[in-house]
Design goal:
By secondary structure, the chain is of the alpha/beta class. Strands 1-4-3-5-2-6-7-8-9 form a 9-stranded mixed beta sheet, sandwiched between helices. The longest helix has 18 residues. A hairpin with a 7-residue loop joins strand 8 and strand 9. The chain has one domain: 3-Layer(aba) Sandwich (Rossmann fold). Helix content is 46%, strand content 13%. Helix 1 crosses helix 12, helix 4 crosses helix 5 and helix 5 packs antiparallel against helix 12. The chain starts with a strand and ends with a helix. It has 12 helices and 9 strands. Belongs to the GTP-binding SRP family. FtsY subfamily.
Length: 341
């Protein structure tokens, strides 16, 4: 039922699979820059949208209600969201009163620090040392970049010295299987996938069940399990993914140990709806926010934080480019600095 794919092939394993054109090419060595610089570059559209307006507002002048109203409009149109905007304005008013600020030019740094304080609870690094194998289930709606994120995560964990196994649990989309196999070949990682026969798509829960057992037998550190994309309104598919999670727990108690929801930054406020729906179905433990380099809606990070002021979800990773190394752990101060500077 299942196929094992390895980058170093034995004729008995499988036929050679070409790299899918859907898999992004790695950055060229001469283009290599620090992630802080890459983040600033990736957030250029958001910074241009937000920063340009704030520069005009904070150019000097009286701090009054008109300024607060204009700032509110700027934050809302930058996809920061109603809840986060209200929290930021409330914090600014308190700081203005406490520090006796009188000139609007003083508000830029105050806003930055308030935004960092709001986002820092999201910056919770993922600890994969608690179980072996550590099973990570990847989910999300169609087209957000789940499979690509898995390939990049595999590379990231390998740089940490971890061994990785991939499970091609998106059995409904043939391209997803091929794309994951291509990532496995690139990273020299074994991929457990369903039969390539389109008439034998296979059960996604069974694929991941088999992958977990294989990882246990081989002493693998991390299992990254892909799942089929689904809309939050497709209730039958949401029920199916609950089944996948239950079956994984049968292969290994308490697994999956992490349920990562992949969000496309381009969706803006709709990301909040996705977080709520998938959390209700699966108990989401962490988020991956992709495609920040292609949108002016980077403020959605604050919107997520503002929606959960008491118990914010962990924003584990953000993606700011097409390179294999462009998915990195979220750092609140680094993110805000890239937004403003």
């Amino acid at each position: 039922m299942f196929s094992f794919f390895k980058s170093k092939k034995n004729p008995a394993d499988s036929t050679e699979t070409p790299v899918s054109p859907d898999v992004e090419s790695e950055s060229k060595p001469e283009e290599s820059i620090s992630f802080a610089a890459k983040l600033k570059q990736g957030l250029a559209r958001t910074r241009q949208n937000l920063g340009k307006q704030l520069s005009g507002l904070f150019g000097g002048g009286k701090i009054d209600e008109a300024l607060y109203e204009e700032l509110e409009t700027i934050l809302l149109t930058s996809d920061i969201g109603v809840s986060a905007t209200q929290q930021l304005l409330e914090n600014l008013r308190k700081q203005v009163k406490r520090d006796v600020l009188t000139d609007s030019a003083q508000l830029k740094e105050a806003l930055k620090e308030s935004l960092i304080a709001m986002l820092e609870p999201l910056a919770q690094p993922l600890d994969t040392t608690t179980h072996k194998p550590f099973v990570i289930m990847i989910t999300g709606v169609n087209g957000v970049g789940k499979t690509t994120s898995i390939g990049k995560l595999a590379k990231y964990f390998q740089t940490e010295g971890k061994s990785v196994l991939l499970a091609a649990g998106d059995t409904f989309r043939a391209a997803a299987r091929e794309q994951l196999i291509a990532w496995g070949e690139r990273n020299n990682v074994t991929v457990i996938a369903p039969d390539s026969d389109p008439d034998k798509k296979g059960d996604p829960a069974a694929v991941i069940f088999d992958a977990v057992n294989s990882a246990k037998a081989r002493g693998i550190d991390i299992v990254l399990a892909d799942t089929a994309g689904r809309l939050t309104t497709q209730l039958h598919l949401m029920e199916e993914i609950k089944k996948v999670k239950r079956v994984v727990a049968k292969a290994m108690p308490n697994a999956p140990h992490e349920v990562l929801l992949v969000l496309d930054a381009n969706t803006g406020q709709n990301a909040i709806t996705q977080v709520k729906a998938f959390d209700e179905a699966l108990g989401v433990t962490g988020l991956i926010l992709t495609k920040l380099d292609g949108t002016a809606k980077g403020g959605v990070v604050a919107a997520i934080a503002g929606q959960y002021p008491e118990n914010p979800p962990a924003l584990r990773f953000i993606g700011v480019g097409e390179g294999v190394d462009d998915l990195r752990p979220f750092d609140a101060r680094q993110f805000v600095d890239a937004l403003f500077d």
